[in-house]
Amino acid sequence: MMRRRTTLLASCTALALALGATACGGGPVSAGGGGKSLSGQTITVAGVWSGSEQKNFQKVLDAFTEKTGAKTQFMSTGDNVSTVVGSKIEGGNAPDVVMVPQVGVLQQFAKEGWLKPLSKTTEQSVDSNYASVWKNYGSVDGTLYGLYFKAAHKSTVWYSPDALDQAGVKPPTTYDAMLKAGHTVSESGLAAFSVAGQDGWTLTDWFENIYLSQAGPEKYDALAAHKIKWTDPTVVEALTTLGKLFKDKQLIAGGQKEALNTDFPGSVEKVFGPKPEAGMVYEGDFVAGVAKDQFGKKIGEDANFFPFPAVGGGKAPVVSGGDAAVVLKDGKNQKAAMQFLEYLATPEASAVWAKAGGFLSPNKKLDLSSYGDDVTRETAKSLVAAGDSVRFDMSDQAPAAFGGTKGAGEWKLLQDFLRDPSDPKGTAAKLESAAAKAYQG
């Protein structure tokens, strides 16, 4: 879905690196030398990517071809991966590999019996090269089905250095300090935050960062699995914290009404466009691509980020998203598909897209020099350093009816809460009602 994908994503200029980096030293790795063992075979790979993301992933596919001789075909599914893949399976034309953008969809595919367990070689690479949390998110009932190749870091607050300098404030390290800094920015002539309320997914991300920091990872996991109800006091507390921001007209560009009419690209424009209206915008690392490609900003100079700050007495959160590669049972070339996933599990494969830009890898063996600029390196370093404290986007773990549908479920209810944040307890009750129905279904 466009949430977290953004075909506007883009690349930061990359180092003139050869096609990859070794796991330990950062020296060049040749994409060849694979013996062309798959010559004459073709694998079909389906995913949501289009635009620059598809173009950059094609470089990974081309590197695999150069290494193995296998031909590849990419099929863009659009947002509704499960429907498209299901119809392809029913029609006897299943792709070999699918890049799945949500934990909930991966679990759905496994429960439908559509997936093959990944090879021992891939599993060994995951055990060696990834924090165990990524293996957990790629597994269903203890069996590894998904390899997380591309990740997003969704605990980054992006800001205009000029705006903060003009206000005389430095990047804050606590949530309260962030709101205080926001008031100072507002007093200097710009609103503090641009909020993309028209896109409900951005509001779920705001909630998730606050909840993870304030309630802690155990409660986060329980709420993500609906093992505790949305009426739990920790949810009401997080909504109350979020509501303080939403109802403060000094802090939000144009107030609640304008926020509800601002989509994600528009929220970035309000900070980094030709006529700035706000000093900061919260969203994932993909903000950098929009700021650079759409508005010509130099990342690290004209646009920078600070980590989403700790809330209350909690730790600073690290919320992530990502795309997992899976192999379909009904694909026509499973052997080559398995070898493709073995390749994707290597730092060599990740280095190809890291070089192209607009990419983060959860593979801790990928040399950070593979990334093309210091800000992307810092973002990647933060994601990998978080280790097992990383938590996958909660709404992406939920059934789509609750966590991933425009105008329904969590998206709509948090938009309603932005419109009127006066009743956190009532909003929690509505969220629980919608969640109960979706999880039961």
UniProtKB/TrEMBL annotation:
Domain of life the protein comes from: Bacteria
Phosphoprotein keyword on record: no
Keywords: Signal, Transport
Signal peptide: 1-23
InterPro entries reported in the protein's UniProt record: Bact_solute-bd_prot1, SBP
Family statement drawn from the similarity comment of this UniProt entry: Belongs to the bacterial solute-binding protein 1 family.
PANTHER family: ARABINOSE-BINDING PROTEIN-RELATED, OSMOPROTECTIVE COMPOUNDS-BINDING PROTEIN GGTB
Protein name, per record: Sugar ABC transporter substrate-binding protein
